[in-house]
Specification:
The protein is mostly helical and 143 residues long. The chain is built from six helices and no strands. The longest helix has 33 residues.
């Protein structure tokens, strides 16, 4: 009855070109996002970290202090400020490591020892709270 006509795909060149241009644009944006911090100098990153630290934006400060430390900018002040930011964020184990580094570089800095003790105390306190909450949970499950 009806004769089936074989279909031929006619490629649309404009569609291919727009697709390629869109992919290149997306790749450029993604690369720019990841590479944007590579061109910054150590001083600029340290300035940003200190600015966020002084404004008590500890999450951003910790992020920039991480970048500064990766660029081999070390010193007791950098380690101490990074540790304080980590302490405020609740990462007591890593904070105690950086306070230990700061106190090993400058053994006369009393603040480093104070914050090291504070971080270790909070770390042990959080472990005790976790253990206690697990015990209470088990008791409540049995009841």
């Amino acid at each position: 009855m009806f004769k089936k006509i074989p279909s031929r795909k006619i490629p649309d060149k404009n569609l291919k070109y727009s697709f390629i241009i869109t992919l290149c644009f997306i790749a450029a944006v993604v690369c720019g996002y990841f590479i944007r911090d590579l061109n910054y100098s150590r001083e600029y990153l340290l300035q940003k970290a200190n600015k966020y630290y002084s404004n008590e934006q500890h999450f951003r400060a910790a992020r920039y202090f991480t970048k500064v430390i990766k660029l081999n900018v070390s010193g007791p002040e950098v380690y101490k400020k990074y540790g304080i930011s980590l302490l405020k964020l609740g990462n007591y184990a890593l904070a105690s490591q950086y306070f230990g580094l700061a106190s090993s570089i400058d053994s006369y800095d009393d603040d480093s020892y104070y914050f090291l003790g504070d971080a270790l105390y909070r770390k042990l306190q959080s472990r005790a709270i976790k253990r206690l909450s697990c015990k209470l949970w088990n008791i409540l499950k049995k009841a």
